[in-house]
Specification:
Blueprint: H1 4-7, E1 9-10, H2 12-19, H3 23-31, E2 38-40, E3 45-49, H4 50-88
């Protein structure tokens, strides 16, 4: 019988699938302190709270969207500046 807390814990592979990254990336995120892991058993298997993984995913998605927005606006202003330069010639 699973307790309520164990239902919210994810394995490294499950966290990786949710984040869309390799399981080694999840371990590196934990090693760097970006994502907290809880060690279980004699082997010290990592487990992650689903809410914390989802929070990181939201942060990653927002950061990716901001980066894409800035890339689009920068390339658009570059085109505008190039067109203005050509008109002035």
């Amino acid at each position: 019988m699973q307790t309520e807390i164990s239902k919210t814990l994810l394995t490294t592979s499950e966290a990786a699938t949710l984040l869309g990254v390799h399981r080694n990336t999840v371990c590196r995120l934990n090693d760097r302190g970006v994502l907290k892991a809880y060690r279980l058993g004699d082997r010290g298997d990592r487990r992650f709270f689903q809410a914390e993984v989802e929070s990181l995913l939201k942060h990653m998605t927002e950061a990716k969207a901001k980066k894409k927005y800035h890339q689009l606006t920068e390339s658009h202003s570059f085109v505008d500046n190039a067109e203005a330069t050509q008109e002035n010639m």
